[in-house]
Amino acid sequence: MKNLKKKLIIATGIFVLILVVGISLTAGWRPFLGPRARPLINRNFLRTPQREARGRYLVEAVSGCMDCHSPHDWTRHDAPILPGREGSGQEMSAMLQDLPGHIVAPNLTPDPETGAGRWSDDALARAIREGIGHDGRALFPLMPYQHFRQLPDEDVASIVVYLRSLPPVRNPLPQTEIAFPVKYLIRDVPQPLTQPVAETDLSDPVKRGKFLVNAAACEDCHTPQSQGRPLPGRDFSGGFALDGPWGHVVSANLTPDPSGIPYYSEEQFVKTLRTGYIGARPLRQIMPWSTFRNMKDEDLKAIYAYLKTLPPVRHRVDNTEPPTYCPVDKNWHGGGNLN
Ligand code: HEC
Ligand code: HEC
Questions:
Q1: Residue 297 burial (CB < 10 Å; 0-12/13-18/19+)?
Q2: Pocket of ligand 1, candidates 60, 68, 155: which has the most ligand atoms within 8 Å of its Cβ, to mutate?
Q3: Do residues 256 and 308 make contact, with C-beta atoms less than 8 angstroms apart?
Q4: In the structure, what pLDDT confidence band is assigned to residue 179 with cuts at 50, 70 and 90?
Q5: What predicted TM-score, i.e. pTM, was given to this entire model?
Q6: Is the minimum distance from the CB of 215 to ligand 2 under 6 angstroms?
Q7: pLDDT, tens digit, for every residue of 53-86?
């Protein structure tokens, strides 16, 4: 009897040890511990006209906040925001297929009950750059906080100042419910910022283009993924599938490879992002050209200059051809059988 008890204790000990080592080596402890987060601080960003203007530019022309945080009329080529609903949030999973669970982009307008009216300035700044919601939750990384963490302090202050200037819209929405096990795994994604983020050197077009491409999260849509993670070595090479009211479409290869977009001139590139047309072909609405068209000419040109410097990646993606299976990104798209 005594012997059996001893054996059981040893067996349990080994089991626990295997579990501890296993978790440490695989998912890590973060899913059980909750996300890394810094405590909120008491600060208010001074509302200045300069900040409001800079914030408006980033929100309405570059970072696509309103593409996700507002409902759209998808029947029109430029998918306009429903009148009077700017920034009032939307259920992303009702629009975009294949999301793990019920993902809601919240109401960012200053409405006190259903919007951001009662969230502090620092709570907003922390959510935008560090991925922690006002309620302390790890945000689903469809919200591009991993890119936004590079936004300088002054830019994030400007974004918050601009959001506070939006007309409040009452729009009660359900809570995000991320499916198991993704709900736990994403707790590893948020990273607190403990240092100030200084202004970026935007003096030459390539540097400015790099900054804008990051702030617009072009990479998130234009890099193929497997199980929510970008395929290594295939940055900006397209083939990420987006299904919704605009139909089935995959993103384009933006690298300078012959299979990418070497056919653009600077002028054509600016025209495509301004009009949403490549020659006579309309771009599907999920490519946020109707936001990017609000960028200054010099900024669109800077993006073009930066894309030219990307490492070329061979990957045929052609939305004008009938879909065939692509062994690289495991999606169906034009040119897929040539990869
Ligand atoms: C690609 C879509 C997308 C874009 C672009 C986007 N967001 Fe989000 N955002 C989301 C989603 C989805 C959530 C909710 C995630 C969750 O509930 O886990 C979210 C959450 C947030 C939150 C957290 C609110 C809270 O609960 O505390 C804030 C603040 C926010 N976004 C602001 C912004 C701002 C500002 C921008 C532009 C600079 C922006 N978002 C761009 C999709 C997006
Ligand atoms: C929300 C996802 C999404 C984001 C963000 C996004 N794109 Fe796209 N983009 C797409 C999709 C999907 C297509 C293909 C649309 C089609 O063929 O109808 C596309 C197509 C394009 C094209 C046309 C390529 C061709 O076929 O000639 C260009 C150029 C482009 N994107 C540039 C950009 C740049 C630059 C950014 C960032 C500033 C960006 N995209 C951000 C989804 C996105």
A1: exposed
A2: 68
A3: yes
A4: very high
A5: 0.93
A6: no
A7: 999 999 999 999 999 999 999 999 999 999 999 9
Q: What single-letter amino acid sits at 254?
A: L
Ligand 1 in reach of 160 Cβ (< 6 A): no
Domain map (residue ranges) of the chain: 2-33, 49-188, 205-338
Residues 6+ apart with CB under 8 A from 203: none
Taking the CB of residue 250, how many other CB atoms lie within 10 A of it?
27
CATH class of 205-338: mainly alpha
User: What's the rounded Cα separation, in Å, for the pair 257 and 253?
Assistant: 8
What mean pLDDT, rounded, does the chain reach?
93
Q: Which two tokens stand for residue 205?
A: 């077009």
pLDDT digits (tens, 9 = 90+) for 302-314: 999 999 999 999 9
Residue 79, number of CB atoms within 10 A of its CB: 21
